[in-house]
Amino acid sequence: MTAEHSLRPLPEGTDTEIAVVGGGLSGTLAATLLGRSGYRVTLIDRHHVFPREFRVEKIAGDQIDKLRRIGLLDSLSTAAAAFDEIVNVRKGRVLDRTRARHYGIFYDDLVAAMRAELPKAVRFVAGRVSAVEAGPERQRVSIIGQPDVT
Ligand SMILES: Cc1cc2nc3c(=O)[nH]c(=O)nc-3n(C[C@H](O)[C@H](O)[C@H](O)COP(=O)(O)OP(=O)(O)OC[C@H]3O[C@@H](n4cnc5c(N)ncnc54)[C@H](O)[C@@H]3O)c2cc1C
Hints:
FAD/NAD(P)-binding domain, 8 strands, five-stranded mixed beta sheet, 5 helices, binds flavin-adenine dinucleotide, elongated, single chain
């Protein structure tokens, strides 16, 4: 489908104060915090469900503190495997050990766990953003094809 023939504005009723394009971890967390702050937010991503990708996600250190601060650590820890030691071994020799709390999780599971915590005020739209037009009063986000709004 070419963009020329299928550029459409978001459907009726999808006016929003803030559109977040990209619902990976960053966009999902941004939408969550903005939604909690009372903004009408629309989160737009190409994928309804984030596809499995090779990203070896290890959440540790200040990432844990930040998720705790925003109240999302429980959701992470439920979906992830917690471990407290990493041993780096090469040719049978221990290179180093790190002792600290870590969470191991597939990235798509992480995104799914965080998306599950999106506030009700955040509308999720599955679709590929193809254009953003700025205007004096209104901005318009166009997506390719028929968007799937939830
Ligand atoms: C192999 C590997 C291992 C890694 N290991 C770790 C680790 O252990 N710990 C760690 O903290 N980080 C790790 N990272 C980095 C981490 O995965 C990234 O920093 C993080 O995923 C970035 O998140 P993001 O939300 O910015 O981007 P993404 O998760 O890539 O999200 C971008 C989103 O935008 C959407 N999108 C793009 N274009 C459009 C469009 N036109 N319209 C609509 N939607 C669109 C995509 O569908 C996607 O969902 C690793 C990365 C890789 C590749």
